[in-house]
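debug: dumping io for the single-chain case to check the tokenizer round-trip. Nothing else runs in this session.
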Amino acid sequence: MKKSAVVLVGLCFILINLTAAQAGFWGKKKAEPKATTEEAAAPAKAAEVAKPAPVTQTDKAKEEALKAKRAIAQKKLNELNNTEWAVELLSMTTKGKKETDTITFKDNQVSVASFVKRGFPATNFTLTVQEDGLVIWETMQTSEKSGIAFWRGELDPKLQTMRGVVSHQIDKKSKQDYSFVSTVKKNISSSNK
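debug: decoded output
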């Protein structure tokens, strides 16, 4: 007990005799040193670094190449629009005979005859042109009653033949995969449905 009293008196003595510098250790905020001129200028220098670099010849060349790619893709899209393709579908998930179908590109959308009957509307599609001239189109179609269909088609550079795959996910458990190849291509008028 005597030891406890001695320790308690000692702690009280220490707390009473704390200096201002020592008080900062116990929770008072110490005065912050003033920033030097260089430290004060640091945010301004950081802002200078954040400014965009001037456009270089390399950037201009990349921009021109991108514009050229977009122009080629737009030209191919215009050529693909208002075309109808007879295709043969071959099931990759079940053995069966070949089915025939029709893929129509019109008004920057694609529709597939048998899938329209199942409730899949015409949808927008993406079109990319690869370095070798191969044209790729892709879309995803949804139907409330028939699930989701993912389409990916490849066209030769002259847009005369097409081949591709479709994955029809009917529900969480049922899925049908097909490959397809074109048999006939024909141009249609923009007023035809």
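debug: round-trip ok. The radius of gyration is 36 Å.
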